[in-house]
Amino acid sequence: MSLFSATRLPGRFGLIGLRDLIGLSGLLALVACAPVPPQTPAPTPRTPAAAGLAADANTPRPAEQWWREFGDPTLDALVERALSDQPSLAVAAAAI
To answer: Which of 14, 15, 17 has the alpha carbon at shortest distance from 6?
Structure first.
């Protein structure tokens, strides 16, 4: 028997051999030397003004019923059904 297989240390999951410990320490040494990608700073978000999207009083707003511009009767029916099934803000506040 060699020294490595004869030497057993008590471990949490049974006996751990010295060969296992040497192999594990070698593996940990390799992992510790692994290259780490460089940390790049996060890009700063652009403001709408910097992107040339500054909104002013002359910017057109979407129509109140914007979905009608698609001209799809199925979409119109779905939106109407959703709006009719939803309680108003006053009804919801009264329920609380």
So the answer is: 17
DSSP annotation string for 71-83: --HHHHHHHHHHH
Our measurement of the distance from residue 5's CA atom to the centroid of its chain's CA atoms, rounded to an integer in Å, reads 48
Read off the DSSP letter of residue 89.
H
- Please tell me the distance from the alpha carbon of residue 69 to that of residue 48, in angstroms, as a whole number: 26
Q: Determine which helix (DSSP H) or strand (DSSP E) holds 39, and give its type and residue range.
A: none
More confident residue, 73 or 84: 73
Whether the model clears a pTM of 0.85, i.e. scores above it, the answer is no
Distance in angstroms (rounded) separating the CA atoms of residues 7 and 16: 9
- Taking 80 as the threshold, does the pLDDT of residue 72 lie above it? yes
Q: What is the pLDDT of residues 36-56, one digit of tens each?
A: 888 888 888 777 777 666 666
**Angle at Cα 79 formed by Cα 74 and Cα 85, nearest 5°?**
125
> Amino acid letter at 83?
L
Tokens for 94, please give them: 């009264």
